[in-house]
Amino acid sequence: MGLMPRILLVLALSLSTVFASAQSATTLLVDVDHRPSISLDGPWRIIVDPYRGGWGSSTEVPGVRGYAANRHYTPGGQLLEYDFAKSRVLQVPGTWNTHSNELSYYEGLLWYERDFTFHRKPHSRVFLHIGAANYAAHVFVNDVHICDHEGGFTPFDCEIPQAVKDGGNFVVIAVDNRRKPDRVPGIKTDWWNYGGLTRDVSLVEVPEAFIDDESLHLNADGSIAGYAHVEGAAPGTKVALSIPDMHESLNATTGADGRADFSFHPKDLERWSPEHPRLYHVVFSTGEDRLADDVGFRTIAVRGDEILLNGKPIFLRGVSIQNDAPYRGGPARSDADAETLLGWAKELHCNYARLVHFPHDERQIRLADKMGIMVWSEIPVYWGNDWTNPHTLAVAQQQLHEMIRRDRNRASVILWSMSNETPDRPDRTAFIEKLVAQARKDDPTRLITSAFAESIHNQTAVLSDPLMKSLDVIGYNEYIGWYIDTPSSAPSHHFEDPLHKPVIMSEFGGGAKAGMHGAATERFTEEYQAALYRNQFLMFRKIPFLRGLSPWVLMDFRSPTRQLPGIQDGYNRKGLVSNTGEKKKAFFVLQKYYAGMQP
Ligand code: GCB
Known about the structure:
The protein is α/β, with parallel strands linked by helices. The chain folds into 3 domains: 3-207, Galactose-binding domain-like (Jelly Rolls, Sandwich); 210-297, Immunoglobulins (Immunoglobulin-like, Sandwich); 301-595, Glycosidases (TIM Barrel). It has 7 helices and 36 strands. An 8-stranded parallel beta barrel has the order 24-25-26-27-28-31-33-34, surrounded by 4 helices. The model is unreliable at 1-23 (pLDDT under 50).
């Protein structure tokens, strides 16, 4: 066959292939942990695809020779230039960047495939729940394109309408983690861009009418209010709510919007707090569907420059936590990872953690609820973003929406953060103010914040970024003693808060290589880092509106921009603990400081 007929044949085959048009995935299911599901975690087959040939067409739409079809090579069969069944294996959840040296720096397209058996119940709906795929995902079941999703750190659900069969099935997911200016985050970050299906993947089957969203919170007047949203229900559908430990059983009916609203005054409520992280088992039910959750009840508010938990002023004794996994590396994704990270925070006597710079694994937030650690949760609007690009804004808004929807029932979460260290310019301010407005609408019960980069002149910091006026709490990152000035200069610095809002020192710190000792003036020694912390504490005494601290950072984490040989070797070394679990001197300095601050 000549070249021309072959091209025509491929074209004809491509056109004859029928693809359901892919809807963009929207997060639908909340509280998936409390639903029966079929885990698709474990070994998946992968094909690394830097030249993007897996689409099987010149456009990024799957063609007949594309990997989505999951065909198998046979010597006498049709030409095929891939075969998942013969390809290497990668564990899900996980990342390809820690799979092998060859993939350590890989940023691009990679295809995952896995077979599964399924027996569908009558009158059900089936969703593929993906805890997180960094960064863009294109999902196919039995060669039907079921959805696309953008944003690397939040869950999404793709409905599998007809494609799933009784018996054997396969799912192919193309994940693409190229950094691009219009993505969120943009091109430059101080963390590793771990690509892949980084969190759990499961199949969730629900009845035709099911609870896709629910929420309960405590109001300032002592009442509890909330709702369950029933997808696929006619108006007037009954929904029951039961909270056995409160001896509460209530009924409500759905309105035209599918929501059944609840409101009641609990008797003898034990409020959630770090000292007493009480959670109540709550159960919503409607028709054949039942959804349980474990929920704490507390209020969070600001009064002038104070933060009030349950009406009383609090100080946030915290630490910043990146999502790297202790010991193993790669993204944190297991109960053990969450227990180690938050366990160290508890050892430090923390009552708060800043989880940066993107929504962390849901397990960490659920554990924070149980351990009594208040949480700052953030979307990756970070450093430079494409402030005037509507697509970029839409992607940031989607990540904000998905974060709030996933974690809005966690009492531990007190702060939604819109951004970190963004430049003071009008288009940035307009961009983030849109996010603030959305967060207030999606969740009027929490405080809104952002972290700002230091802006210090003549040892004076005036908190005057125009974005600050839209926020409830100001986060300030300062690196006095590391990027600017010397550690011992800290106490002579002066802070002004013209807006009279509560301020959290959302970052401060310096690098130290675990086990490296020397003079307190020698950078990267444990002694330098410890001295830096001691000097910061002297400075904090003179900031009357300071309401919390989250030093940078709990544990050393991988970052491609940290290249000092023998010291950094690809890690940001500002951890209080090394990535292999060694506690540095500054860990104990902070521990003692926080011990002295406990109520
Ligand atoms: C910052 C950033 C954080 C960096 C840190 C550092 O201000 O918010 O993402 O990792 O400084 O180590 O420089």
